[in-house]
Design a protein that fits this description.
Pfam families: DUF218. This protein is of the alpha/beta class. About 55% of the residues lie in helices and about 15% in strands. It folds into two domains: about 1-55 and about 230-255, no CATH class; about 75-215, HUPs (Rossmann fold).
């Protein structure tokens, strides 16, 4: 059953791709024309496609989606008193870029790196212990966990405070494998560091594996309402729509007992 649902959500995910929507509209119009269907119907399909492109490209849908995904986490940044005795910071990988045969963290990863370090530094300034669990394998020769670790050490984080979870390939596995490590450590607090648009789904998955992390959003994305559609608004809107779909998938799987 899970395999079929996975396949279904992959198909649905296509509808969050702008090029697929344009391609689908063209195909529908072409088929209607070939079968000599009413001209008004073809015009209607074309008009609907144009309206959707405008609605997505002018930033309106993006504004609504960004609020749904991120608003809950704006005031959670660094607002907890850093006095617990055995905290663990979990930072989720944001991707690896292989450019000219050199692997570097994706741009998105650096805000997560900085936010996790700021949390860690606060504890160390108060002479309190703190560990960082770095979660992510990625698809490069070096894992996300390894690249994060190299950067953390350059920033002054002790190697003994770094724990690499380098098996996970997606957010579900981030939560699954990190939870096994965390349950062995029995921390007083768990801080979860990832991007704001990615936080709601991440927290839901960590809840699935019995953890209640304190969300610490490292960055936020938003769109700007514009008179004319633009690619910036469209790109971020589709990124966020995928996250919304992912949240619905987590909720459905949890209700059916398919996660865990």
């Amino acid at each position: 059953m899970k395999f079929l649902l996975d396949l279904l959500f992959r198909v649905i995910q296509l509808f969050t791709e702008p090029y697929f929507l344009v391609f689908l509209a063209i195909v529908i119009i072409a088929l209607l024309k070939r079968k000599n269907k009413r001209k008004n119907l073809r015009i209607g399909v074309g008009f609907f496609a144009v309206v959707m492109i405008i609605f997505i490209g002018n930033g309106f849908l993006g504004k609504l989606t960004s609020g749904y995904l991120q608003k809950s986490y704006v005031n959670t940044i660094m607002n907890k008193n850093k006095t617990s005795q055995n905290p663990v910071i979990v930072v989720l990988g944001g991707g690896v870029v292989d450019f000219d045969n050199t692997e570097k963290l994706h741009t998105m990863s650096y805000s997560r790196l900085v936010t996790a370090y700021q949390l860690y530094h606060e504890y160390k300034m108060n002479n309190l212990p703190c560990k960082i669990v770095i979660s992510g394998k990625g698809r490069g020769q070096k894992s996300e966990a390894e690249l994060f670790s190299e950067n953390f050490k350059k920033m002054g984080v002790s190697e003994t405070d770094l724990i690499k979870e380098d098996k996970s390939m997606n957010t579900y596995e981030n939560a699954k494998y990190s939870s096994k490590i965390l349950k062995q450590m029995a921390p007083s607090d768990v801080y979860l560091v990832t991007s704001g648009f990615h936080m709601k789904r991440s927290v839901a998955l960590f809840h699935t594996f019995g953890l209640d992390p304190v969300p610490q959003a490292s960055d936020f994305i938003d769109t700007e309402i514009t008179l004319f559609p633009n690619s910036y608004n469209a790109a971020f809107t589709f990124v966020m729509l995928k996250e919304v779909l992912g949240i619905w998938q987590v909720q459905l799987y949890n209700s059916l007992g398919l996660n865990g």
